[in-house]
Amino acid sequence: PVLDTEDAWVSVEGPVSIVELALEQKRIHYPLVEHQFVLCTILYAIMRFSLKSLKPLSLFDSKGKNAFFKDLTSIQLLPSGDMDPNVLSIRQQFLVKVVSAAVQTLCSSQKAKEVSEEELFPFEKGKNWPALAVDLAQYLQISEDVVKRHYVCELYSYGMDHLGEE
User: Fold this and answer.
1) Where is the Rab3GAP regulatory subunit C-terminal domain (predicted)?
2) Domain ranges of the chain
3) How far is CA 119 from the centre of its chain?
């Protein structure tokens, strides 16, 4: 970008401006940032729903694991379309667990009307975990329909038929 400066500022001495510093920074590799975001979301879901006996890095293949430890400005080989069926199975089980835990939390918070979920977790106001699991399914190369069907089945099994029909 072209930065127009006034003549009075050209002769000013001192530290480099923040704009000039920002322009000198290397550009980040956006798919690598997305990859990091997926890991952060997975870690947050594990923490939020207390999913035990799950190793987050087991959801990624060797290329995916190596990409986590690289500079965000470097162009890394990220996982391609061909995935190990075992990794896909672990990913699908993880998403199913997240949806199940989200529905269970929703049902338990509705049964205990005294304390709403928003009061327990105010920073999650408006967080729709099943929708987030569907979005994660796209990144993790899992069929979104599998996650949606499991969500509907969970709603019906917890007696929330009105939500399941929607």
Assistant:
1) 1-166
2) 26-111+125-163
3) 23
